[in-house]
Amino acid sequence: MNIRFEISEDRNGIRYINLEAFDTDAEANLIDALRKSGIPIISLVAEENGQLVGHILFGPVTLDGDKPNISIAGLGPMAVLPDLQNQGIGSRLVEEGLKQCKRSGYEVVVVLGHPNYYPRFGFSPSANYGINSEYDVPAEVFMVKEIHAGALNGRSGTVIYHQAFKDVILKFAGGEHVGTKIISSDLQNQEVILE
Ligand SMILES: CC(C)(COP(=O)(O)OP(=O)(O)OC[C@H]1O[C@@H](n2cnc3c(N)ncnc32)[C@H](O)[C@@H]1OP(=O)(O)O)[C@@H](O)C(=O)NCCC(=O)NCCS
Q1: 168 C-beta closer than 6 A to ligand 1
Q2: What is the CB neighbour count within 10 angstroms for residue 10?
């Protein structure tokens, strides 16, 4: 399996993976919206025998706290084709993505996701650092990882995601699953939102 950066020819394949892995098209639309927004995303694909099987995206988020000048990446969405899940593809994507975040100069990565999955990569509840999500979610699902040890020392505040995330609402089922659901019909056509 090969992990590499997204190229333009991958866009339909990435959309397909996200449509297959999630209940709705919210994540696929979100990825398209983030690309169009022009923010510097890190978008990696997992490729096996010429087929795209997984995808992960990181984008910049801000800390709306007393010291906002820290470089933080938000992990997500990420997805693996359902038939190929639980084979380590997601783990490879997270590990390679974290390396790339470090190369790109990020000091911290945050993720809103499965509380049983991300701790294995060094994420822990953000509340331990006095860092909050802007979304009303259970504390254990918003997690943080310092890429540079001590980067969060003396810092606190609320992490703010790109506007495109605000049009999806998080959905939880027993703390085991995190997905997103469209709450704005405008999201059906991202061009309406972004232009
Ligand atoms: C989450 C996801 C990307 C993980 O990719 P993957 O290739 O299956 O992950 P890996 O094979 O590296 O790791 C498998 C582990 O993840 C766990 N896992 C998979 N999906 C999970 C979920 N929904 N909730 C909690 N843990 C989950 C498995 O139980 C397994 O744990 P184990 O190693 O202790 O047995 C993939 O399951 C997926 O695409 N899920 C649907 C979309 C999604 O929920 N994306 C993440 C949003 S935060």
Answers
A1: no
A2: 18
Q: Please list, in sequence order, all residues whose beta carbon lies within 8 angstroms of the beta carbon of residue 32, skipping any fewer than 6 positions away.
A: 11, 15, 190
**pTM recorded for the entire structure:** 0.88
Centroid of ligand 1 to alpha carbon of 163 (angstroms): 26
| Model confidence pLDDT, tens digit, residues 110-120 | 999 999 999 99
Q: Which of 15, 48, 117 has most ligand 1 atoms within 8 Å of its beta carbon, as the pocket-test mutant?
A: 117
> Apex CA 39: angle with CA 90 and CA 72, to 5°?
60
CATH topology of domain 2-193: Aminopeptidase (3.40.630)
What residues are paired with 110 via a beta bridge?
A: 74, 144
Query: Given the CA of residue 80, which atom of ligand 1 is nearest to it?
Result: 39
Domain ranges of the chain: 2-193
pLDDT at 59 > cutoff 50: yes
98 CA → ligand 1 middle, Å: 17
Q: In the prediction, which pLDDT does 109 show?
A: 98
Quote the pLDDT of residue 136: 85
Examine residue 77 and say whether the peptide bond preceding it is cis (omega within 30 degrees of 0): yes
H helix intervals, 59-189: 89-103
